[in-house]
Structure formats: structure tokens, C-alpha cells
């Protein structure tokens, strides 16, 4: 029941921003087509293709999240964490550049073994962590506004970290529970609950805490059996 609830609310959570972006993009395109200097066919075709790509991803996400809720788990596929980190950054960058002054930085890119899990849902989960970090920076005082996404090799596996230099978690242990939010009307408290569900399904641990020098750290920690480790190029 918890899975169903989190996935149901999670779907609304994950679709809201790409739907808004899609509607805005189409509105702008219609406006330009009716204007004095309408874009040429090639430019329109490019814009339509970009929009289609976004719509296809939303459709795939709906399908994956329904399947997850029904089966109690996601796909079991090999996932390259560095690629997933890049994809999550590409997904969140356009929305964040409009809404927030946060600088998105790609940190460490250690060569790590492939992990197993649902690639699409893991990318969304990383995106949730990035958006949370950017939200926290939006509320922060001062000039430090950086979100860093790093992939690190660990002795027993790999970690994907999202670090920020904001105020840190007010209560790191409470934050992962569904419904816990410090954002009033703006937050549902769904993000971290969804991330935790997806992480656990992939056999990963969601670590949440504050950094010694200030700011928050959220990480997905994967254990990889060294005997079975395959690197990102697919060679054992
Ligand atoms: N990087 C961060 N820095 C500081 N606090 C954070 C950070 N990430 C999450 N939090 C805290 O954890 C709470 C729960 O996060 P969660 O993503 O579950 O919900 P939300 O962001 O408040 O709302 P929603 O994700 O549903 O829009 C946040 O309200 C905030 O108080
Ligand atoms: Mg959130």
C-alpha cells in the first residue's frame, strides 16, 4: 500500500515539471508561428522533435511507474551511474536555469562498476535529489549556490552523491518519510520517499545527512559484488 501511494503521488510529482515545460514550449512556438517573423520549417521540426522526446519520456515514465506499483518493483537492468548522472542533469538543467540561481556542477566521475536497477527511475530519483538541493539553495542566504553531482568508487561498490552548500537538512532522519516537507504549500514531501523506494528496489541505500562544512549530502550507495563487477564498457 505504501508503494502504491508513493508511486501514485510520485507520478504527479514527476510529471508536473515536464508537463509545464512542454506546455510552455508549445505556447511559445504557436506565438512565434503567428508572429511577424515565424520560424522556418526546419526550426519548427527541431522544436517538435524536442517536444516529442519529452512526451515520449513522460509516457515511458508513466508506464514504468505503473509497472513498479503493480509488480512491487522496477526493471532489473545494468545501469551506468555516470551516464545516469549526466542524464539527470540534462533533465533538470532547463527548469532550474529558469527558476533558481543554483549552479549545477558535475563533480567526480570515477570509473565504477555497472549497478543493477531501473535506469529510468534511477535517473528520475537523481533528478529529485538535484531539485531538492536547488530548492534548498533558493532559500539560502549568501552567494554560495552550487549543486554538485558526483560518482565515486567505494571499496565495496559505488556512490552517487548530490551535494549542496545550502543550509543542510533541518532533520535528516525525518526527511525521508512520506509527507514530511518544510516547504509549506509548495511541497508534498514525496520526493525523498520516492527516491528511497527506487533506491531500495535497486538494492541501494539512500544516505541523507549534512556535510561537516555545511550544506546537505544525499547519496545513493550501491554495493557491488567484486566477483561479479562489470565496468561501464561491459567488460568484467
Ligand atoms: N538538499 C537539501 N537541503 C536541505 N533540506 C533538504 C534537502 N533535500 C530535502 N530537504 C528537506 O527534506 C524535506 C523532504 O524532501 P522531499 O523531497 O521528500 O519533499 P519536498 O521537497 O518538501 O516536497 P516534494 O518533493 O514533494 O515537492 C524537504 O522539505 C526539506 O526540508
Ligand atoms: Mg522534493
| Radius of gyration from CA coordinates | 19 Å
Strand content: 15-25%
What would CATH call the class of the largest domain?
A: Alpha Beta
Shape: globular
Neighbour order of strands in the largest sheet: 2-4-5-7-6
State the total count of DSSP E strands.
7
Share of residues in helices: 40-55%
The biggest sheet amounts to: 5 strands, mixed
Describe what is shown at a glance.
Helix content is 50%, strand content 19%. With 236 residues, the chain is of the alpha+beta class.
Give an overview of the whole structure.
- It contains 6 helices and 7 strands.
- With 236 residues, the protein is α+β, with helices and mostly antiparallel strands.
- It has 2 domains: 70 residues; 147 residues, 2-Layer Sandwich (Heat Shock Protein 90).
- Helix 1 crosses helix 6.
- The mean pLDDT is 92.
- The site of adenosine-5'-triphosphate (ATP) has 22 residues, from helix 4 and helix 6.
What key attributes describe this structure?
two-stranded antiparallel sheet, Heat Shock Protein 90, binds adenosine-5'-triphosphate, five-stranded mixed β-sheet
